[in-house]
Amino acid sequence: MVTLTFYGGIREIGGNKVLLEDSGTKIFLDFGMSFGRRGLYFEEFLTPRVANGIGDFLAMKLIPDIRGVYREDLLTHMGRKPEEPEVQGVLLSHAHADHANYISFLHKDIPVYCGETCKHVLEAVNEQSQRSIENEVVDFKLRPLYRRDYRKPPVKRRFKTFRTGDKIRIDSLEIEPVHVDHSVPGAYGFVIHTTEGDVVYTGDLRMHGLHASMTDDFVEAAREAKPRVMITEGTRIDRGRTGESEHRVYVKSKKELFNNSKLSIVDFNFKDVDRFRTFYRISKEVGKKMVISFKHACFLERYHSDSKLQVPDSRDENILLLKPKRLTGTYIDEDYTEPYIKKRLGYPNIVTAEEIRDKPEKYMVVLNFWYFNTLIDLKPDGGVYIHSLSEPFNEEMQMSFDRMMNWLKFFNLRFVQAHCSGHINGTDLKELIKKVNPKELYPIHTEHPGMFRKLGIKTRMVKEGKVYKL
């Protein structure tokens, strides 16, 4: 008997946690953080208590209370006995937090299966992020009851990586991963061969990006499988085609940056390697040095190590690293304690805000909103800010957006929106589903699951914790 149980991604964007069981073999399809649900109870200064292990997460239903899944140290902290793992693996579709981050809580002996490039992204996040209980995907620090045991080195998780064309065997299950196009490299969909027929899981994908052919490969593999079940994302099922594309981001952004004789600032998600390539190309064509942060360098160096991504190293002649102010504010080496900065202090292409301020027209600075206080050092007086991210879609994001606009107004920076979504639009998704033609459809990662009923395919309105038999 084959069953599916959904513990996240239900009438929400992200938070995917799907348990598939076949003849005693159990695997999770992703194990992500639900930003929406977490945001109902917690915020920046009100967070789940580490001292309670995963107790707060279980109590507020941020993760499912099921046996044989979680780390021994986190169970002990909440007064429960350790449990032997009862899940044989996690299939991770890609490295975004809403699919990956709550792997942080899983038992050390549960292996994580992901693409090789996905592992690079996770390692870059791990290198430059401040360790927290919710961000320990690659490795984790034991949180035992006794203080002396905190000095032990991090426990590394078991990763098993793959590329398209490989086949994965997890006990009785055979899985075929196939690349898809998304806003982070190393994204995959899966065709899972079960005793009751094939199950297809899309992960997150799109058809309007630079690598639509990868999504075509997945669609063809899924169609040939004649799937019994298709589990699909539906982030933008309610949207038609907009004509958005990476090329349009390039054309619009280049025009704005070419005509700008003052400081140029851009903001995009550095996990998005296509967006990096877009702005790197523009920087060379308009004769501006691309200035990135030390955190960005962690990603870029790992991308550079993957020859298939074809991106430069962080010491490229057209790239500079912006040295942040720390402690004394004098840029002395002793000010920097973070390992990811210390190991790069000897790079020849480091620049300070004061140096950029002397000739602002010669630079394109990649600056995230959370580091806008750097504008105080850059002192721009006019110029352009290109926001290459999604527009706000909830109240919390709107508040941050309004605050961002206040900063731009203060420094007389002109706002330009230029973005291309990482998610497939509704028109393309409907065509994709019809091509695959599953016998049964399970829409998740969507706020509008009812819209899938119009496709003429048997569609399940998924309920959390309910066991569905194939």
List keywords for this structure.
470 residues; alpha/beta; Metallo-beta-lactamase, Chain A; Rossmann fold; 2 domains; seven-stranded mixed β-sheet; 14 helices; 23 strands; 21% strand
CATH fold name of the largest domain: Metallo-beta-lactamase, Chain A
In the CATH hierarchy, the architecture of the largest domain is 4-Layer Sandwich
Helix/sheet category: alpha/beta
Overall CATH class of the largest domain: Alpha Beta
Round the mean pLDDT to the nearest integer and report it: 95
What does this structure look like?
- With 470 residues, the protein is an alpha/beta fold.
- The protein has two domains: 2-239 and 423-469, Ribonuclease Z/Hydroxyacylglutathione hydrolase-like (Metallo-beta-lactamase, Chain A), CATH 3.60.15; 246-417, Metallo-hydrolase/oxidoreductase (Rossmann fold, 3-Layer(aba) Sandwich).
- It has helices at 35-41, 55-59, 72-77, 97-100, 116-128, 212-225, 246-258, 273-285, 294-304, 339-342, 353-358, 375-378, 395-410, 426-436, and strands at residues 2-8, 17-22, 25-31, 89-91, 112-115, 139-140, 155-156, 159-162, 168-170, 173-179, 188-194, 197-201, 229-233, 263-267, 289-292, 319-322, 350-351, 363-366, 383-387, 414-417, 440-444, 458-459, 467-469.
- The strands form four sheets. It has a seven-stranded mixed beta sheet with strand order 8-5-4-3-2-1-23. A seven-stranded mixed beta sheet has the order 9-10-11-12-13-21-22.
- The longest helix has 16 residues, at 395-410.
- The radius of gyration is 23 Å and the shape is globular.
- It starts with a strand and ends with a strand.
